[in-house]
Protein: Aromatic amino acid aminotransferase
Organism: Streptomyces glaucosporus
Amino acid sequence: MTEKAPKLRAALDGIPTYKPGRPPAADGPAAYKLSSNENPYPPLPGVLESAVSAAGFLNRYPDMACGALLDELASRFDVPVSHLATGTGSVGVAQQLLQATAGPGDEVVYAWRSFEAYPIITQISGAASVRVPLTEGEDHDLDAMADAVTDRTRLIFVCNPNNPTGNALRRAELERFLDRVPGDVLVVLDEAYREFVRDEDVPDGIELYRDRPNVCVLRTFSKAYGLAGLRVGFAVAHEPVAAALRKTAVPFGVSQIAQDAAVASLRSEDELLKRVEALVEERQRVREGLLEQGWTVPDTQANFVWLRLGERTAEFAEVCEKAGVTVRPFAGEGVRVTIGETAANDIFLRTAGDFREGLRSR
Ligand SMILES: Cc1ncc(COP(=O)(O)O)c(C=O)c1O
């Protein structure tokens, strides 16, 4: 036996591990998972059938070019196929973007707190993270983010709506920001929750990308479309960026099951969007309920709500779990709670109300 161990890149030292939302323990009290921003509805029948039918060809590699899916997306969003690239979830596409743009000595700017994968995939790339704190009102501080751009900046993530706070940037402020960012810095508009947006002032990133070659939009089938388990997301970007995404893709990364289910989902969009609408109504109900209880809740445009509980975060998460729902705590900061089944939302609301009452009487 040799004393030597394989040499690993120093960039990996101290990397934070991605914490998935906790599922309810098999023998525990919680019955509902409100910790991963998943869609509580099962796949639509047509979608399930196409996935099952693709499973009959598991001995074959998938279509590496994702041809049928790209054709469907191109007509759905009115963009050229050459401006589209797919990946293993939009987090996979985000990682490909970093591989294509950033390495040691470079900088990646993003708001914090935001999607917890950003620091991880940035560190893996070897680039340095430049985190710009959210404002008091939990918004991206776009002026500070633009000020943070240096000669070393290669990529900026803008999460709209922001995970975990749920609030969204509006057109005028986002356009002003994009006008300030140099054209050789890639701005990634991460719109994982776009379908849940109801505020008309929140722009559709795909409209913003059209005349801005340094803007790339990320979308996913994991949230509104309910295909989180299949791992398929995509980017809309101008040619050089989309071509770079094809170069950095894991070959055959998106399974045929995922591709066919995604196509079927796009074709069942009316039905799917009815479900999204029901979730948006539930979101409204939950947020209003929390406001009535006296909580401060950002104006969420996503499928979750954010409670900034500070030092009470862990305690609140534990109380929720005992009551029957798992939520997503960010230690010392707050709790993100996904809008789920009505019964789950009811349990959460009741628990939040009781907790607040308890705080008053302490
Ligand atoms: C803001 C944001 N972007 C991207 C993702 C990644 O989603 P997926 O990789 O499932 O497409 C998530 C998932 O939670 C998210 O919250």
